[in-house]
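User: I'm putting together a teaching handout on how multi-component assemblies are represented. Below are the sequence lines for each component of a complex, exactly as they appear in our records. Could you produce the 3D structure of the whole assembly as structure tokens, so the students can see both representations side by side? Please keep the chain order the same as the input.
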Amino acid sequence: MFQQFLVVLGLTAAIYMLLALGFTLIFGIMRVVNFAHGEFVMLGAYAVYVLQDVVGLDYFVALPLAALLVGLAGVLAEILIFRRFTGDELGSMIVALALAVSLKGAVTVIFGVEGPPISRAITGAVEIGGTLLPKDQLFAAAVAVLAVAATHLLMTRSRLGLAMRAVAQAPDVARLQGISPWRTYPAAFAIGCFLAGLAGALTAPLYSIEPHMGDAALMRAFVVVVLGGLGSIPGALIAAFVLGAVDAGMSILFNPTIAALTSFGIVIAVLIARPAGILGRA
Amino acid sequence: MRLELQDVSARYGAVVALDRISVVVPSGTTAAIIGANGAGKSTLLGTITGLVPLAGGRILVDGADLAGLPTEQRVRGGIALSPEGRRLFPEMTVGENLLSGAYARRDRRAVAADLERVFALFPRLLERRGNLGRNLSGGEQQMCAIGRALMAAPRLLLLDEPSLGLAPAVVVDMARAIRAIAATGVTVVLVEQNARLALALAETGHVLEAGRLVRSAPARDLADDPEVQRAYLGELLPADRRASTNGAAICAPVVR
Ligand SMILES: Nc1ncnc2c1ncn2[C@@H]1O[C@H](COP(=O)(O)OP(=O)(O)O)[C@@H](O)[C@H]1O
Ligand SMILES: [Mg+2]
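Assistant: Of course. Below is the structure of the complete assembly, with chains in the same order as your input.
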């Protein structure tokens, strides 16, 4: 049972990290609370459906393509909408909610209330340490971990990452180094939405897809990010692990409803003790 | 790089922070801007970097008007500021803070050489290379902030209160470093409340009072001026006893 716990923990935490990373990245750099984050996850799921089941592409081609398309949609959203709300936490929340409702509506109009059935490219299971693991879940977890690691490298090792961190920590001082905040904002949205789209495209074959699937995704991202400290990437990674452990443990011992209940109980308890989150600064 | 301010004014809402300031800093020289707290010294540097908008007047570097150029472009054009209060990136290491200063530069080799130069100037930074900005002492932060500005390979270096909050021994090191930087031909504008230090390092001095320029003169003349001494140099003490006081001890090694 412990092995099963570890495996479920790994899967859950990896997806949580992926969901939360893009959300916290965008907030950290732009102070924009993207409540449409879940809809970008949903777009990723629908994109992979269209590319795989309508266009007929292989899943392994459709997956990165779907994430790229959602990243592109994120850049458009930044240029058309969000850049006007940079630094405006409340205003960005409201406009993001409006965008979320619009995207859900548009997808419902095109694809219907019920999500289309999506075919599963990866089937079968492997036995690891006496536990039977579905290959599709293992694949999703592995890709999620790789994407998180790649994002970490991008943020810590690249010129763009340096610029984004500078803008997140002190935008006026960043400008004094010749860094234009306005150029980092589309990049933040591109990466944040790419990660959201990837999460959607990865999980689409595991669960069913429907226009409201973004709500649960946003809730997960939000809980992880608030628990870890808004804007803190290490905080989000720790929180994803904690919540993944709670989710896995409680789901195995009891059921998913009690797991969700416990997760939120922990969030409330942590926020009472540390209002800025685990690694957040007030 | 020659800097020329023509009738520069700046406002914060209704508060006039700078009132028609005109200053010329010839290329390759060091100018000291002295004045009490709130006189407008930092605002003056802000108008040069573009972070504070002009309410009137013009700023020219090498004869070209900076009007309309955003801060990023001015920095790329060779103007660097070591800001008041250091303003390091708190969650970046010393090494990353320094490299952020060279963000706009593409010449990797020259950047690496300049990094070595900064470490030679401030050996302490090399020891602290992997530490986060927020974990440095005040003196180390100041060295890092100046080092970061140097990493931009500026032709006009603006220093806002580089001696503030430093222990006397560290101020001596700082003064030596600033003199070494100026000797490389960079034009330096040095803002200081420590007027004795600033006048010892500069060719010319400019005195700001409540947003107005009240004196511009060779630095040595200002340092010898009884009125300036009374207002900014604590000249209530006899000259020979000055050496034993803290303020004078700070600057004794750098007075020419
Ligand atoms: N951001 C600001 N908003 C409003 N007033 C400011 C601001 N910054 C400075 N001031 C005011 O402008 C005047 C000049 O300030 P400053 O340039 O910081 O002086 P100094 O650097 O000589 O101490 C002061 O009266 C100060 O209170
Ligand atoms: Mg000041």
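A couple of points students might notice: Residues 17 and 193 of chain A are 14 Å apart (CA to CA). The first strand of chain A starts at residue 125 and ends at 128.
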